[in-house]
């Protein structure tokens, strides 16, 4: 919930500790990555400048700053961005911010021409303090909950992503693993309390915990390679990459998770791929694993 003194403190902490992924300056324009525009999890970058003919202005109140009153927000309709990216036939869309905050909207709501990706407020670029440079904004008549206002919007993911894959680079050699390739590596089935990204999910059923996951140890992806003393970088398609030593990844059996309850991981739950760190059972991960014990939206793995 994005309100009150608690959220203010969280925002302040993010702004001072997240320099690698929050730009110090806002911009009138920008670009958004759209996943699933082709085979696999290909990303297309849509520049808002290219949508200049579809720019609209909506007078609305961001309930996260409700006491500030109404402002004129300028931006591009979400549906126009999806159309330009060639996205169609989806049931819903997941928006991911640079802080990995996640908002899932059904297709009908995303098609509302007044649901926009805003870049300006009263003619001024949206600063990061207001959720910019790009923020999801709704018209007031929809009366959306304040947690639905996705800030720092970076990536859009339709729910039909076709044949997703994760790429692994070791020693200069890159291999792409689709779901069927991971199945061939003799995955494990575990019952876990699995973290999912913070966010707003319009009509998705709540994930019941613990849940059954299908996963493989990350080490299985570079089995037979000499990785002694090397480091591993996990790069999500939205958010910051993280680099850590390979040794605890192997000894603690950090897992690549790619199914929940026997189904591919929905983007709104951090999919198609996430990484699970068994922090409660392996002390070697203390201080190097994410606080959530998971890394969401995994896109690439590299060892060097």
UniProtKB/TrEMBL annotation:
Residues 1-23 form the signal peptide. InterPro entries: OxRdtase_Mopterin-bd_dom, OxRdtase_Mopterin-bd_sf. It comes from the Bacteria. Pfam families: Oxidored_molyb (PF00174). The keyword Ribosomal protein does not apply. Coiled coil: none annotated. Residues 51-139 form the Oxidoreductase molybdopterin-binding domain. Keywords: Signal. This is Oxidoreductase molybdopterin-binding domain-containing protein. It comes from Desulfoluna spongiiphila.
